[in-house]
Write a structure and sequence with these properties.
- 4 copies of one chain form a homotetramer.
- Chain A is an alpha/beta fold.
- Chain A has 2 domains: about 140 residues, NAD(P)-binding Rossmann-like Domain (Rossmann fold); about 180 residues, 2-Layer Sandwich (Dihydrodipicolinate Reductase, domain 2).
- Chain A is built from 9 helices and 15 strands.
- Chain A has a 7-stranded mixed beta sheet with strand order 12-11-7-10-9-8-15, with helices on one face. A 6-stranded parallel beta sheet of chain A has the order 3-2-1-4-5-6, sandwiched between helices. A two-stranded antiparallel ribbon of chain A has the order 13-14.
- The first copy, chain A, is globular.
- The interface between A and B is medium-sized, with 33 and 33 residues.
Chain lengths: ~350, ~350, ~350, ~350
């Protein structure tokens, strides 16, 4: 793309950030579609996937994109300015490290790595370059409601945070979803929310398993209640319930010393005088209606950060957040088979 | 009071139930005013209080009532059909036992006794008579919202109960309010709510103390989170926060396998276009606006039960509920200084 | 009923107010049941009905009551202290006048009379005695929500009232319900609400008939919109819709110069995670759940006023309110077949 | 901008639609900023404004844009593919006609013209070309809530539309705002909403002016109530209140024969336990928080329509909608000084 010459001024149209996408399953394909249709200032230039056919199909809907065979080719391509990683989690560490080595900003879907140690490698590698490279895909940080609660808290409107109550509900989950998935796939969002809202480390976690719904598969404790305690003593409850057979709901309440506030309550179209003497509304079937705008905002913020050279957006989760989440998840997993709370000690945070 | 003779029929006007009231501090005086002004079919006939002067003053506003010196005189008075006990808790056990011995139905404010053993004495004494005598003043059972949630649960509309989330908030508490009061005065209401909604015993309790509000007096853990587990595995969370400096709020959410439901959310007058770009409503200053109707309904149901000879209303808390609450409170107090959950084993329930 | 002698004091138990009830169809029978079971300080002593059998049946459930043949016998009975009129509307004027003549306080169900002229007769008759005798059964004045809105308005929290928006909805109506019933039976409640909230006369009314629901019987304009203007220029909209096939809803919004406020929005049990991805609550089938407490409060306030000799409760609708409502209803009926607004001029109000 | 050659495929990156913007006051400048930062597939290429300095300033923030002296130069520029008109309303007709004549799609802010006759000229001119060119800036059609209500209506969930209740509130308005502005600037949004939701013409309008708020300037009737009737008999109420001194609120309720539904109720962050015993939330200060997304969606939909050659988005208001709105506004203005309703007869709609 060349610059358009203005008749009056020397300002040129900025070139789009060229994004390479690794992994175009459901989430990666959504990102390609997002970048191609809604994200200003970016376009998808190179795509790879384990399944070449999938990559070809997704590329066909992303004008100007081409398909390559390997993640390494995406990262090293000359026409890739920034890398978006949506491959399976076990590949994230190495791919992020490769992007850092290539000096290319990266937006990596969660998790950053499969264990705290691997995640810490990324923290150190990025720190070693002296620059920011890594954004982690905790998109709720870009949700309007999350932002409103964060702003109210930061403005002191609620006083000191004492308790953070989280609820996370899904209509259903895929077969094979276990207690470990409950921690690493579901609770991980609230674990990052703690970092986002409270900006301090979790020091212990305890898992409680109430009686399960009859809709839960054998072996899954559903609902599950996780209790976290932060360094300054804020208590966090996270109620996870993934087989409601209803819809997707995420609610967050901050109980503060000067007031409490809740986000994520049902809104939108409210019907009355419904047949059968009912009133109410609809719960979305999955996370898309609730968080679609947050995904768009996340990627748009990332592109803007790449364009202005800061690489990581202000509200974005960083490699350190990814490491902290990995450490808390590991402890939460341990607490599934432990009595009482499991303590967490994080490694040193590079300054 | 003599019967009015009907010209047409032999039916006579039923005589009012004559209620003796022991203890007329704030709560007892409220009951006297309630019975004198709003409760159909009852009147206060005899009053006693530790402070004779207080008794005289309260009696002056209860037409037809007289003052006696001792609780024993109230219980044994010929013009007392039923006894309402609102004296300090340490006297409840003996006064209730005396009422049972006198064959008079009794409505006793919480607690039934100061410890589980004393409470169990009452259970056995009542059981020994072969009749029902004891209603315990857990008035929330008569709150319209509690009733709606109980009905929805009993009707199967929510499926099996998995988690019960309770929130209990006060603007402030009296000086000298400690963690023990938090359990015995505040949490006790939710402890009985478990009996009411779930109809099964609590088998363990764990107390968690987050960072406290700066408004809490030294030594009080405020807010406090209690976790209960019932025999069938339902988990109950009880968030107590008694120095909000705002108002009185009690909310209850039942998370079920077929749906969830909440009571106690703010309602009433909703204002919009308020100066300063605000919308919203008011939180009542104390429990009276929220539960005044429940108190009235409780006493009216009690009078109806006394009048029809069943003595205890269907939804009323019984001596057994009082014993169970005492046992759970004792364990909750122990858990304040314990790691993890404290287990609870109830004595045998007389059939 | 004789007084109980107190051992300590000379205060006697006050005798119950003995209420005579004229007309015990559904509404009158409800009142008999209410007075017999829930209203403190009153009992039903004498009953009459056009159908003797109905009167006997209702009387059987009102201990101490007897049946007489005529309304006149109810009014003149020695054992009747106050009269409750729930007969068909065409008899109200004469029965109220007879009660006034007998010097007995009366609670008359709406309407006070079948036309403004007849209603004004009652105003003058009561005024001629120099005392208050007449309470009119606009029970919404005793609804908690109405009270909250009235209090907010009187306290100046909303500034000057500019617009009052009313909505009045029923699931269905009896066969034979016509546009005239819509005015005289449904809208009349909001017409009195104008008197209650705004305390000034209506000076014009205009009726608008949108497209009707397919559920409305032939000839009924349903929904219907009535527009009222008060002396000071407040505009009132009243949206009536009586075949919603859903439930009973009454909502009122006051738009003021310093804020707006709404009452009657759905509350109670709020369910989430319902099957089918729904959330919401229930709308009551008819007016009883919504206004049962208001009816009780209305009658209790009336009994208290009779007992203290003021005869009419502070918030109660008076004969003048009944006359004003009749005048507005007449104009609203005229406006059904008129273009534009119909003006209303009230007669002089006796001071 | 030239195409990027793909190594694997012949697909090229599509060129951005080059937008010329006429008038860059507040609204036009917002559009330039929107297109430059958030609208995918478009960029601002040419700008004109009555104030050259303003145009230069706005252009400086739109990379690749240049400034020209006249609207005509914008329309005829080779590097302008589509025209956005945000100049004062009196110039709209001629500028839109010029864009049609140049064969360039145009998004024109409301109004389309200053009177129905001028607006109809545009309808005919566009119709004469046999193609669609004109989108009108009624952005509420792209609001998520409007979309939900429209979808529910179209799906038959609410049955037949009987009444549409609209409320439109502003914290304040600029000095000099008169009753005529109330109609043409404020009510015009709801007038188009009628077209959007009900898809049929308005046949009469009546204006009612209640007592005004003390905050309204001399001569402004605030609040104002407009009543519209559509061809099939649906009644529309539009309550306008532009000096609430609070914030911006737009609420819409559709009363249908099978159910009713409301959009625009307060949501977002809901606070409880606020100091002073309050609960509630914030009302936005102006329309931007409420409708920012709608503006973005409107322009994005327009760009997509231009790119695919249909020129006008499916949900967009057309020249005909602009003509109809002008006709209704003219009648509403007449009704300000008329008794009763003013009838509206539209000219023939070209097929």
């Amino acid at each position: 793309m060349t610059a358009t010459q203005s008749a009056d001024r020397q300002t040129t149209v900025p070139q789009d950030i060229r994004v390479g996408v690794i992994g175009v399953g459901r989430m990666g394909a959504d990102h390609v579609e997002r970048i191609s249709r809604r994200i200003k200032g970016a376009r998808v230039s190179v795509i790879s996937d384990y399944l070449r056919e999938t990559a070809e199909k997704v590329s066909a809907a992303a004008p100007g994109s081409r398909v390559v065979d390997t993640p390494e080719e995406v990262i090293s391509a000359e026409d890739v300015d920034a890398v978006l990683i949506a491959s399976p989690g076990q590949f994230h560490r190495d791919q992020v490290l490769a992007a850092i080595a290539a000096g290319k900003p990266v937006l990596c879907e969660k998790p950053l790595a499969m264990n705290p140690s691997d995640a810490y490698d990324v923290v150190l590698a990025e720190h070693g370059t002296g620059r920011a490279y890594v954004s982690l895909g905790f998109m709720r940080r870009f949700d309007a409601g999350y932002g409103q609660l964060k702003d109210a808290l930061d403005a002191g409107e609620l006083g000191a945070p004492l308790i953070l109550n989280c609820k996370h509900r899904n209509a259903d989950v895929l077969p094979g979803f276990t207690n470990v998935h409950m921690v690493y796939d579901s609770a991980v969002h609230e674990i990052d929310a703690i970092s986002f809202f409270l900006e301090e480390p979790v020091v212990s976690v305890q898992t409680l398993t109430p009686r399960s719904t009859e809709n839960a598969p054998e072996g899954l404790s559903d609902p599950m209640l996780l209790l976290f305690r932060t360094a300054s003593g804020t208590l966090v409850t996270d109620e996870l319930y993934v087989n409601t057979r209803s819809g997707y709901e995420v609610r967050t309440e901050l109980v503060g010393s000067q007031g409490s506030a809740t986000i994520g309550q049902e809104s939108g179209l409210v019907s009355t005088q419904l047949p059968g003497g009912r009133w109410g509304g609809a719960v979305p079937a999955d996370f898309r209606p609730r968080f679609l705008d947050a995904y768009d905002a996340e990627v748009q913020a990332w592109i803007a950060a790449v364009a202005d050279g800061t690489n990581v957006a202000v509200r974005s989760a960083t490699a350190w957040d990814g490491y902290a989440a990995a450490a808390v998840c590991e402890a939460a997993e341990q607490s599934l088979s432990a009595d009482g709370a499991v303590e967490i000690t994080l490694r040193e945070r590079p300054s």
